[in-house]
Write a structure and sequence with these properties.
- About 30% of the residues lie in helices and about 35% in strands.
- With about 140 residues, the chain is of the alpha+beta class.
- It has a single domain, classed as Nuclear Transport Factor 2, Chain: A, CATH 3.10.450.50.
- Strand 4 and strand 5 form a beta hairpin.
- The longest helix has 18 residues.
Length: about 140
């Protein structure tokens, strides 16, 4: 598996956990050694693994947890840091997301997630597939 594929797999695991409302899988996506942070749309910045996991617990256990699809993820490497910028489709609208990953314990793990509204839509993908939650199993 290429490094790009490994980062895309980690990114897909994040959206899979979100789509399945799986707290155990969500926790497995996030780094344990590196400092983590998260900015959910409309929320203040959250710092630290415990606080980030509490935020995901609130979202994934909430009654109104939206369905989410990831479109056109693009990976960029900065040494041992990788970023994925993608569109999140939620309720017929789109958010633009940035997901940051570091190599930890031999695999890519998330250290930051931020999503914000956008008026744009995902561009047509050339050879990249959209993430469909049922694809990982």
């Amino acid at each position: 598996m290429s490094e790009t594929d490994a980062v895309l797999f980690a990114n897909e695991a994040f959206y899979f956990a979100f789509a399945r409302r799986d707290l155990k899988e969500m926790a497995a996506v996030w780094a344990e050694d590196a400092e983590v942070s998260c900015i959910h749309p409309g929320w203040d910045a959250i710092h630290g693994r415990e606080e980030v996991m509490q935020s995901w617990h609130a979202i994934l256990r909430g009654a109104g947890t939206p369905e989410i699809l990831c479109h056109t993820p693009r990976v960029t490497f900065y040494g041992e840091l990788a970023s994925v910028i993608c569109y999140e489709e939620i309720g017929g609208g789109y958010l633009l997301a940035t997901n940051l990953f570091v190599r930890e314990r031999g695999r890519w793990r998330m250290v930051h997630h931020q999503a914000a509204p956008t008026q744009g839509e995902p561009p047509e993908a050339d050879d990249e597939e959209d993430f469909v939650p049922d694809k990982i199993n």
